Amino acid sequence: MTQNIDIKRILIPIDFSSTARLAFNEGLKIAAQAGADAFILHVAEPIRAFDFGKQKYIETQEAIERVQEGVDRRIEELWQEGGLEAVDRRKVHMIVRGGRAHEEILATAEAKETDLIIMGSSGASDKTTAGSTSERVLRGAKCAVYFVRQPGY
Fold first, then answer.
1. What does DSSP say about strands 144-148 and 116-120: parallel, antiparallel, or unpaired?
2. Which of 44, 41, 40, 42 is nearest to 63 (CA)?
3. What is the pLDDT of residues 19-65, one digit of tens each?
4. CA dist., res. 44 & res. 101, Å (int)
5. For residues 117 and 143, is the Cβ–Cβ distance under 8 A?
6. Helix (H, G, I), strand (E, B), or coil: what is residue 40?
């Protein structure tokens, strides 16, 4: 028995690895076919600076904006490489978060009420398991998860 999934929102986490690039292209094509919104998520290590006045580390807006600009530039490169001109950019939403990748992916998927997560998986040293982030997302996701791997992996 097959079950159809009504796909309205897709989360595509990217770290700019080769498998994430494949997932980006595949995810946007699926989003276009389904007429779904695509949320492109990039998770960076927390960006912090030490505030001597407060004697603690704080996230800096300037540093976050620099990361956002870099992500936007790289997304544009992926867009051009992938031949995705037919994709409606009004349905593509960029998100940059700081934190642990699997936690931010799961939190974003829940917050955006995504129906599908499409992500690259480089896998562990053998071909039968996913990488640690992929596996954590798979175990914690409340929606369908689709992994994209390098051809021949």
1. parallel
2. 44
3. 998 998 899 889 988 999 999 998 887 666 655 666 665 565 666 67
4. 8
5. yes
6. strand
